[in-house]
Amino acid sequence: MSENRKENSGSRPAIEEAVRPKDILANKYDNLLEILCAMRSVVVAFSGGVDSALVAKAAFEALGEKAVAVTAVSATLSRRERTFAKSAAELIGIGHVELAIDELASSEFVANDKYRCYHCKRLRMSRLKRYAADEGFAEVVDGTNADDPDDWRPGLKANEELGIRSPLLEAGMTKSDARRALEALNMPFWNKPSSPCLASRIPYGSTITKDKLAQIEAAEEAVWALGVTDVRVRHHGSIARIEVPRADLKKVVDADGLTDELRRAGFAYVALDLDGLSSGSLNRSAETPRYPIAHEVGRDQDHNRDEQMLKDDRSRIYPFAPGYYEAE
Predict the structure, then answer these.
(1) Residue 19 CB burial class (10 angstroms; 0-12, 13-18, ≥19)
(2) Under 8 Å CB-to-CB from 21, ≥6 apart: which residues?
(3) I need a surface site. Which of 9, 98, 243, 295 has the fewest CB within 10 A?
(4) What are phi and psi of 216, to 5 degrees?
(5) Using only C-alpha atoms, what is the Rg of the chain?
(6) pLDDT tens digits along 163-183
(7) Does domain 3-195+289-317 have CATH number 3.40.50.620?
(8) Residue among 41, 54, 15, 64 nearest 167 (CA)
(9) How far apart are CA 193 and CA 182, in angstroms?
(10) What whole-number distance in Å separates Cα of residue 7 and Cα of residue 185?
(11) Residue 48 · residue 127 · CB < 8 Å
């Protein structure tokens, strides 16, 4: 155990060995703790998703009050996700700060080309870097995991340019590892579905506006009201294209009044994607090559294990946070 971890162990509850991730995962988790300890103090870019939640949990174990979770609040963050981030930080025990960010003030972000995530990430992380400098934190870290470089992730370039650290990536932890680690650590949101920002529902080349983001949020809330907890409503001008897991397609088709709800949100037409939910499906409409990074790390051979975990256990999705199920 490092000196930092010894120093912090007296001021916060220790993680019991009985709930530690096992075997290879335990080694990865211990490596994650050592990486964070060496940083001395950190600001965690915290969305409340599985990856950033594990980083926040580990950072709090490793560094105690020398770690803080910071959530960027803007029009691209739904009220539901904002509520969840607050609840998750409270459960973890880490200090939590919200910073207002206005991506819509950036003409590059609003233009919504295939580098949208780069422009957003650079804006957000620059703001977090300023916060870290002002408050005396040594590093800014995010939840990029070891699977991410295999997808179209232009935000990784912004991380590289700004010197943002990605402890999960450095420790070789995949999304599946993150879920299993949170489950072993008794975090009830270990199987929370991924929920990218609202702007990800708008096809590349279509301008991002506050009104479009509000339409998407209202439409997704209407689908949530059906008991469907994993949903994307893609914004195709006057058309809302609903993506849900294939197991939930009938629930959407049979829903009374859903079309009216989406029309009230501002859409003229409502379509249901029969292929089901596909995270990053709008990347099919643009040439989006994998972003190469310098330090490739080992990956879990079963990249789909986390999705299977969700299918097997949807009844236990983050039950601790009822506010996540209820629109504000």
Answers:
(1) exposed
(2) 28, 29, 177, 180, 181, 184, 185
(3) 295
(4) -60, -45
(5) 19
(6) 999 999 999 999 999 999 999
(7) yes
(8) 54
(9) 13
(10) 21
(11) no
Q: Supply φ then ψ for residue 239, to 5 degrees.
A: -110, 130
Number of C-beta neighbours around residue 297 at 10 A: 15
**Phi, psi of 265, rounded to the nearest 5 degrees:** -75, -15
The one-letter code for the residue type at 216 is I
- If phi > 0 it is left, if psi is from -120 to 50 it is alpha, else beta; for residue 205 that is left
Backbone angles phi, psi at 152, to 5 degrees: -80, 105
Tell me the whole-structure pTM to 2 decimals.
0.81
Tracing tokens 């079963």 back to the chain, one arrives at: 302
Per-residue CA distances from 92 to 185, 228, 315 (Å):
10, 26, 22
Take residue 136 and report the two structure tokens written for it.
């005396």
Specify which residues 99 forms β-bridges with. Answer: 72
* CA dist list (Å): 255 to 31, 157, 240, 322: 48, 42, 16, 23
Fold classification of 200-278 is Alpha-Beta Plaits (3.30.70)
**Residue 68 is which amino acid?**
V
Token pair 């870097």: residue: 129
| Between residues 322 and 2, the one the model is more confident about | 2
Distance of CA 275 to the CA centre of its chain: 23
Residue 40 has pLDDT above 50, yes or no: yes
Angle, helices 210-224/79-92, rounded to nearest 10 degrees: 70
Structure tokens at 72: 């960027």
How far apart (Å, rounded) are the C-alpha atoms in residues 103 and 76?
8
Domain layout of the chain by residue ranges:
3-195+289-317, 200-278
Statement: residue 289 has pLDDT above 80: no
Q: Which two tokens stand for residue 75?
A: 């029009």
